[in-house]
Amino acid sequence: MKIDKDKQLQLLQNLSGPSSTKAKPDASQTAAQGAADAASDKVELSGSTSEVARLKAKADAIPAVDEDKVASVKQALESGTYNANGQLVARSMLKSQLLDQIF
């Protein structure tokens, strides 16, 4: 069985979980919408740069590794009580494999 790129993308979307899919417009609708958008394009600069900077600083302050969670998983592994969800592991492996093949 040969799996082409479209099938790989479809499988990847299915593995990623539920998502809202939108119907793609045909070429004539896209061209008409593009012409309408070009006529009404405008640029607005907002004063929200300070808000973006504040949020970025807040995000940068969050540690990349949750030390409490790491310690909890280590303890569960050492005591033999860690139980991995097989379906989540399999889904993650398939998703990773498909991403490697596509990109």
- Computed over alpha carbons, the radius of gyration is 23 Å
Strand composition percent? under 5%
Kindly, what is the distance between the CA atoms of the first and last residues, rounded to a whole number of angstroms?
20 Å
Question: How many strands, which pairing sense, and closed or not: the largest β-sheet?
Answer: none
Low-confidence stretches: none
Q: Looking at the structure, what is the overall shape? A: flat
Could you please describe the fold and organization of this structure?
With 103 residues, this protein is mainly alpha-helical. It has a domain at 67-103. The chain is built from 5 helices and no strands. Helix 1 runs antiparallel to helix 5 (86-102). The longest helix has 17 residues, at 86-102. It starts with a helix and ends with a helix.
Please name the defining characteristics of this protein:
single chain; 103 residues; mainly alpha; 66% helix; flat
Draw up the topology in text.
Blueprint: H1 5-16, H2 27-39, H3 49-61, H4 67-79, H5 86-102
What does this entry show, briefly?
By secondary structure, the chain is an all-alpha fold. Helix content is 66%, strand content 0%.
